[in-house]
Amino acid sequence: MVKYILKRIGFLLLTLFLVASITFFLMKLLPGTPFNNPKIPAAQQAILAKQYGLDLPLWQQYVNYMVGIVHGNFGESYQFAGQTVSYLISTRIGPSLQLGVQAMIVGTLLGILLGAIAAIRKNTWVDAVATIFAIIGRSIPNFVFAALLQFWLAYKMNLFPIALWDGFSSSILPTLALAMAPLANTARFMRTEMVDVLNSDYIELAKSKGESQWQVVAKHAMRNSMIPIVTIIGPMAVDLMLGSLVVENVFAIPGIGQQFVQSITTNDYPVIMGLTILYSVMLTVVILVVDVLYGIIDPRIRLSGEGN
Amino acid sequence: MADNIKLGADAFKHVQVNTAEQEKIAAPSLTFTQDAIRRLKQNKAALISFWVLVVIAVVAIVTIWFSPADPNAQHLAYQHLPPKWGGLDIPFVNGVRKGVDLYATNHVPKGTYFLLGTDYLGRDMLSRILVGTRVSLFIAFLATFFDLTIGVFYGIISGWKGGLTDTIMQRVIEIISSVPNLVVVILMLLVFKPGLTSIILAIAMTGWVTMARLVRAQTLQLKDQEFILAARTLGESGSKIAFKHLIPNLSSTIIIQTMFTIPTAIFFEAFLSYIGIGLPAPTASLGTLLSDGQKVLQIYPSELVFPAIIIVVLMLAFNLLADGLRDAFDPRSNNR
Amino acid sequence: MTDTILSVKDLQIDFKTFAGPVHAIRDVSFDLKRGETLAIVGESGSGKSVTVRSIMGLLANNSKIVTGEIMYNGADILKKTKRQLNAMRGNDVAMIFQDPMTSLDPTMPIGKQVAEPLLLHTKISKKKALAEAVRVLKLVGIQDAEERLKDYPHQFSGGQRQRIVIAIAIINHPQILLADEPTTALDVTIQAQIIHLLKEIQQKIDTSIIFITHDLGVVAGIADRVAVMYAGKIIEYGTVDEIFYNAQHPYTWGLLEAMPTLETDTDRLYAIPGTPPDLLDPPKGDAFAPRNPFAMQIDLEQQPPFFQVSPTHAAATWLLYPGAPKVELPPEIKRRREIWNSKYATKEA
C-alpha cells in the first residue's frame, strides 16, 4: 500500500511538472505581454520587463519560474502591481473552498439519499419522481440554475441575499446552484448501484435471517452501494471547479473562480498560470485521495493490496 | 378418489409425440440491433426526445436561409422590446409590458414583430437564439466526430496492442485527464484567439478521453474471446479485425458514449461563452445570450428565459435519448 | 404417523409478467415430518425454488399467491404479517443458498454475519453472540474460527463459504432448514463433504430439511423422501427407494435414465427430449405429455390425478389407471424394478 501511494505521488509530481512546463512555454509563445503595448514608451517597457524578469533568456526565466513554484512563489500579478500571485490566491481561496466543500457534502448526501430511495422503491412513482428530478438536474446548466435561484428566491421572494459574500446565509444559494450537478449524478449512480445490490444473493440471505427491509438496507445495502460512489468524487471535483467559475460570477463571490475569469479577460498571465497549476494540483490530489480511500474502505481491495 | 373416474378404452390410445418440433424456436429471432431499436421505440421519453431534436435541428438549419431578421442588426431605438405575435392580443405576446404598448411608444413600424422580443441592442431574440442553437448543434456534431475518430481509434489501438504501447497511451490519458479541461481551453484561448477554433481544439484535445477509456476496456475483453482468436489464427490483418469484428461489437458502447458526450459538449460551449471566453461578440451563442440575459434578469426576465428554455430542452432531449439508448442497447443496466 | 411439522396444501402461485400471469406453482401439496429430509427434485423452472421461497415468505414482488396454505406450528405462513415473518425467518425456518460465492456480504466480516441472526432474534450480548458464532463455525468445520472472525468472505474458498452460509442458517437451531441447491455451485468432492455435513448437523440440532436439487444423484445421499416436480406440479412422491427403484411416472423414469450410474453399460448419456411447457399457458392435460414417449390420448385432455402406489408413494400418471395398457419399460427402469423386486420380494407377494 505504502509503495503504491509513493508511486502514485511520484506520478502526480511528474504530471504537475508537465502541466507547469507546458503552461509556462505556452505563455511565452504568446505574441505579447500587457507591457509591450505601443502606447507605453520603450523606456518604461524596459523597466517593467526588468521588474518582472522578462529580459532574461528564456531558459533562465523557466528555471526561475520552476524554482519559484517549488518555494510557493508564482510571481507577481500584472494587473495588481506589487501583489504576488500566492498572496492573491490566498486571500481568495477561502470562499471557494467553503462553497466547494459545502456543495460536495450537500450533493453527495442528498444524491445518495435520493438514489437509495429511488432504488428501494423501484418502479413506483417515488422512483419516477427521483429519476425525473435527477435528469432535470443534469440538464439545467448550473449558470442557468444559479440565475433562476437568484431571481426567484433572492430577488422575488427575498429569502436570501442576492449576492456578495457575507456570512453563511449568503452561501446557501451558491451552494445549492453548485450542488445541483453532483447531486443529480450521485443520485443516478447510487440508484444503479443500489438496484444491483438489492438484487444480490447476500441481500436475500440477509432477509432470510429475519431482517426487516430497513435493517437490510441499513446494515448491508447502503454500505455496499456507497463504496463505488467514491469513484465519482474525482469527476465531481472537476464539475465543482468549473461550476465555481460561473456561480461565483453570478453571485459576485470573491473567490478564485471569479479571479480566474477576471485574469483571463485582463491577460494577467502569472495569475492564470498560478491558478492553472493550483487547479491541477487540487484535481490530481483529489483523484489520488479517492483511489487510496477506495482501497481503504473496500475490504476486497484493501486486503489484496496488503498481500502484494 | 382417482379410481372412480370412468374412462373408455380409446382414452388410452398411444399418441406419437414429436419432440423435434418443440425444440424449434417459436418467436422469429431478432438481431441485436433490431432488438435494441424495438426496445428504444417502446421508450416514449426517448422517442419524443428524438423527434424534438429532429425538429430543432431542421428549424435551426432551414433558418440559415430564412432567418426572421438579421441576428446582428442593431436597432438602438427598439431596445428590450417584449415579444409580439402579429396582432394577437394575448398577454405576454402582445407587445405590452406593464400596461404600455412598447411597440407603439418606440414607433416600431406596423408589420414589424419580434416574436421573442429584442435584446439590449434591439437585436431580434428569435434570430439570435436560432444562431445560438446552430452553434450548439455544430459543437455537438464536432464532439461526436472527435469521439468517433480520436476516441474510438485511440481506445482500440491501446487495448489491442497492449504492452508498452498501452502503458504509454494510458499514461497520456491520465495526464490529459488530470488537467481540468477548462485549463486546456484557456491555454488554447491564450495561444489562439477566443472563438470557435479554440473551443474546437479544446474539445478535440479532451473530449474523447472517456470514449477512449471505455473502448479500450471493451477491446481488452473482446480480444480474448474465441471469435477474435479464431480470426487471428486465420491470419486476418489487425485493421481488418478491427473493422470486421471489433467495431461491430463495440458499437453499443460507442453509440451510448457518444450520446453522453453531446450534452457535455453543448454545456461546455455555452459555459465558455457565458463566462466570456467562448465565441466573441457579436456572434450569438446560447451561452452569450444567457450571459446577456442574466445581466437584465431582474428587469427583463424573458431575455434569460427564452435561451434557457432552448438549452434545457436540448440538454434534456439529448440526455433522455442517451438514457433510452443505454437501456435499449444494454437492457441489463436498468431493468434488473 | 410421525408428527408433521410443515404442511403445504393446494398452493398456487402466479407471477405477473407483461405477457400475462405465469402459473409457476400449480396445486402443490406436501407434508414435512419432524426430523426428516425431503428432497424436491426437478429441472430449472419447475417451481421448486419458488416453493421454498414461499415457505420463507421471500417471494419476488411480482408474485401472487392464488390459493393455498402453508401450515407451520398451527399458523398459516401465508397469512403472517411482515413482522411475524421476520420473527420466523432465520429463527424457526432458515435457508441455505445456492451460490456461496455471492451469498455472503463482501464488506462485512464473517463473524458479524454469522452472529447476526442471534443478535436479531435473541437478547444476547454481542460478545456472547460472537462466541456462539465461533462454536457454530467450528461445528461446520471452520477449525480456526477464532482467528478468522474478522476475515472477509473473499478470504475463504467456495467450500468454506458454503460452510459459513450453513453456520448462519443453523446458529438459531431452526426447526426447518431449506436448502436451495446448496451443492450445485461446488466441486464434486466438496459436494460430498457438504452433504455429509448437512446430515451430521441434522442429527446434532434435530431439524427437518427440505433439500432442493435438480440432481437425483445427490438425493440418494441425503433424503428420506423425494418429491419430483415438473412444470409447477409435484408429479410423483415416495421414499428414496420407491423413487429410485419403483418409479411410476415417465418423467421420473426420464430423470433416472439421465443419471449416469456405474452399473449402466450404455456409453451414451440419455437426455429427456423436448423442452418444458410454457407456464404462461400451461397445457390442458398432463404437462409432460408432449415430451412423453408413453403419452396417451387422455394425457392430452385431462390432468392425471394422484394414484396411490403404497401408503408413502403416489404418482400422477394415467399409466396407473386400472384400465390403462401395460407399457414396455425402458431398460434402465426395468433393471431398477428387478432390484426393487428382489429387495422387497416379500411385499410383492
Automatic annotation (TrEMBL), chain A:
Keyword Cell membrane: yes
InterPro entries linked to this entry: BPD_transp_1_N, MetI-like, MetI-like_sf
Transmembrane residue ranges: 9-27, 99-120, 132-153, 159-184, 229-251, 271-294
Keywords linked to the UniProt accession: Cell membrane, Membrane, Transmembrane, Transmembrane helix, Transport
Organism: Schleiferilactobacillus perolens DSM 12744
A single cellular component GO annotation: plasma membrane
Chain ranges of the ABC transmembrane type-1 domain: 93-294
Subcellular location: Cell membrane
Protein name (Swiss-Prot/TrEMBL): ABC-type dipeptide oligopeptide nickel transport system, permease component
Family: Belongs to the binding-protein-dependent transport system permease family.
Gene Ontology process terms (BP): transmembrane transport
Topology versus the membrane: Multi-pass membrane protein
Main localization (coarse): membrane
From TrEMBL, chain B:
Coiled-coil ranges per UniProt: none
Pfam family, one: OppC_N
Keyword Plastid in record: no
Keywords assigned: Cell membrane, Membrane, Peptide transport, Protein transport, Transmembrane, Transmembrane helix, Transport
GO BP term, pick one: protein transport
CDD domains listed in its UniProt record: TM_PBP2 (cd06261)
Cell location: Cell membrane
Domain of life of the organism encoding this protein: Bacteria
Domain ABC transmembrane type-1 intervals: 133-322
InterPro entries the record matches: BP-dependent_transpt_permease, MetI-like, MetI-like_sf, OppC_N
Topology class, membrane: Multi-pass membrane protein
Keyword Thylakoid: no
Transmembrane segments: 45-66, 135-160, 172-192, 198-215, 254-277, 304-322
Primary residence: membrane
Cellular-component GO terms for this entry: plasma membrane
Similarity comment text for this entry: Belongs to the binding-protein-dependent transport system permease family. OppBC subfamily.
Name of this protein: Oligopeptide ABC transporter permease
TrEMBL record, chain C:
Membrane topology annotation: Peripheral membrane protein
Originating species: Schleiferilactobacillus perolens DSM 12744
The keyword Glycosyltransferase is annotated on this UniProt entry: no
Keyword Transcription carried by entry: no
Annotated keywords: ATP-binding, Cell membrane, Membrane, Nucleotide-binding, Transport
UniProt-listed SMART domains: AAA
Family matches, as Pfam families: ABC_tran, oligo_HPY
An MF annotation (GO) of this entry: ATP hydrolysis activity
Domain of life: Bacteria
Residue ranges of domain ABC transporter in the record: 8-256
Example GO BP: peptide transport
Places the protein is found: Cell membrane
NCBIfam families, alphabetized: oligo_HPY
Gene3D superfamilies given in the database record: P-loop containing nucleotide triphosphate hydrolases (3.40.50.300)
Record-stated family: Belongs to the ABC transporter superfamily.
Protein name, per record: ABC-type dipeptide oligopeptide nickel transport system, ATPase component
GO CC terms of this entry: plasma membrane
